[in-house]
Amino acid sequence: MVAIHSVYVRPIEEVDKHLAAHRAFLKTFYEKGIAICSGPQIPRTGGFILMNAESKAEAREIMKNDPYVIHGVAEYLFIEFEPRSFAPGFDKFIKF
Question: Domain residue spans in the chain?
């Protein structure tokens, strides 16, 4: 599993120009069962994505096609981890 933290590197007005495309991009990974949750930080200085990717390398490969990356409005930090404890029902999101 990979936690992805984004940091906006351009003004929020520029980020917002690509928000709809970014959400549409992520939707395809929700449909594939790879993306688990996502959303903006509060305050909106970046965001967070939890992804059921096989590895950090796979998550990097996926996110290089994100409109935020393509247009240079956000940078990502990737943290790979192995979930060992989780709430009941969360196991459906984990690839064993």
Answer: 2-83
Whose tokens are 């979930």? That residue is 83
- The mean pLDDT of 21-31, rounded to a whole number, is 97
Q: Is the distance from CB of 79 to CB of 2 less than 8 angstroms?
A: yes
29-81 per-position pLDDT tens digit:
999 999 999 999 999 999 999 999 999 999 999 999 999 999 999 999 999 99
Sequential DSSP letters for 78-90: EEE----S--TTG
Query: What is the fold of 2-83?
Result: Alpha-Beta Plaits (3.30.70)
Bridge partner list, 75? 7
